[in-house]
Amino acid sequence: QVQLVESGGGLVQAGESLRLSCVVARGTLSEYFVGWFRQAPGKEREFVSAIRWNGSTRYYAASVKGRFTVSRDNAKNRVDLQMNSLEPEDTAVYYCAAVTEVSYRAGRYDRAAEYPYWGQGTQVTVSS
Fold first, then answer.
1. DSSP output for 20-74
2. Separation CA 67–CA 89 (nearest Å)
3. Which class for 66: exposed (0-12), middle (13-18), buried (19 or more C-beta within 10 A)?
């Protein structure tokens, strides 16, 4: 069973950048389709971005497209989320999640229920 660990969260001002990382502490990253989700206080968890096992396809929520970039380095067992031009509305706990490529069902990348493995989350706070 894969174990995911996020890092890189923090407090920044609007317009600044952060880079989140998701490291696979146990398992082999190349076997997994990886997604990023976020949850703000009082709101449901929402999809942010996702990337196929080899990086060939990347997906973004409309609210972050053009500002966030997802990438992966399977040799380092790591997936990154570069977040630029951050806005107060981006404030949330960010989670990485994984599903094996063989189990992933096409088109369901934005559904939290599709991912059986989750990290503990990292807090991102953007002040105005």
1. EEEEEEES-GGGEEEEEEEE-TTS--EEEEEE-TTSS-EEE-TTTBTTEEEEEEG
2. 13
3. exposed
CA 47/CA 61 separation, integer angstroms: 6
Distances (CA, A) of 8 to 18, 55, 122: 7, 21, 7
pLDDT tens-place values along the chain, 128 residues long: 789 999 999 999 999 999 999 998 888 888 999 999 999 999 999 999 999 999 899 999 999 999 999 999 999 999 999 999 999 999 999 999 999 999 999 899 999 999 999 999 999 999 99
For the CA atoms of 36, 101, 118, 65, the dihedral, rounded to the nearest 10 degrees, stands at: 0
Residue 127 pairs with which residues in a beta bridge?
13
CA end-to-end span of the chain: 40
Answer whether 117's CB lies under 8 Å from 4's CB.
Answer: yes
